[in-house]
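Q: Convert this sequence to structure tokens.
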Amino acid sequence: MRVEIRAQGNSDFRARVDPALAAGEVQRDGHDLRVGVPTGGDGDTLRTGAAAAARSLRRTGGTIAWSIDDSLGLPSGEQVRALVEGTSFGAYDPGLYKSGYAGRPELTLALDAPDELRSLVERQATIARHLDAARDLSNRPPNDLTPPALAAHAKSLAGGHLTVSSHGRDWIEAQGMGAFAAVAQSSAEDPQLIVMRYEPPAAAAGVILGLVGKAITFDSGGISLKPPLRMQDMKGDMSGGAAVISATAAIAELGLPVRILTVVASTENLQGGDAFKPGDILRASNGKTIEIINTDAEGRLVLADALHYARSSGATHLIDFATLTGAMSVALGDLYAGWFANDDAWAAQIETAAAASGDLAWRFPLHPRYRRYIDSDFADMKNGSELREGGAVLAAEFLREFTGEGPWAHFDIAGPAFIKRKRPDYALDQGGTGYGVRLIVELAASFAP
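A:
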């Protein structure tokens, strides 16, 4: 999708809001599109309408023109966000590997908007482009997007004030990252710890925002094998890593004045003669030992070493994104992410960023009494619980053991990051959604001096 600011002129299609239609309904009359957005609707309903309009033109392509409409009762900036993001969502095609994908029709959004909104339009178009890149990563198959391939993608984004490096199995083991190394040991693919550093001039003093992502490029569950039904969706178990990589690239392109340290732990979780086993005891890089009771609770293991590395490398504020627990999907479905924070001031900053971004999120409790769920008789902790209670919360309490001193938040994005059925809002197809990219950019922007 391309975005332009200009008068509607001779655009191929002209779109306008029609409150008489059902929300998200599109009716086409020649070159005119009427889009259902209820009277008194918010930015999200306009975003859904713009997505539906774009989706209706995916096969034909062309230029779709929208005008800022004062009668909607929405601030013009909010309309810009909704129209750019909604059009991007609706125009996205997940069929990366279908014949003819490269020759698919292109859709251009033409916004008839005041010139003073140009910088906002360009900002949102940049974010949308990187959000699409995160969706592409989540939708790539596991035989194509291996950990080294993900590292290569991250390195392709380097330039200017953004540097990228990655480290393989030998380095991971030499650093004492026993939790990460154990998950990776049954895969023939070399695991990768991907490190992105963004060092802009005139950055906010005393702040390094640490972004940590889980990137299991395929998760079979290991010896604690997952059910075969829909195991193919486990290619999306790297969506947290995709989000932080793409958001970091967006932050760098936008030139936001905050230092970023992004750490992504990437591997496959497979079976094999050298696979880690229930009953194993691992030692993470912070020295704590972990009894394994479920090899399918591997995401928290790779995050344990990644979080410790990020904090030890100078991150003052930490936030991780991970498709971590089925329990969170059961609790919130595929719409909201659940999140946790150890610091109320940090939580308030995140809450504001989430609300501005459009990435829906609901805060869950942390409480030290949940720690008993992961108490072990044989090690400092275990990586799960035999009880079917508080699964998302105990996973967060596990991660807290590796976050060190300072503000930290954990986003469990298992539901909204990789959806298993179409969602009518934003015209979302099955697969990756890019959840987290918008939120992270807003959060980084909130540190601007």
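The longest strand covers residues 208-219.
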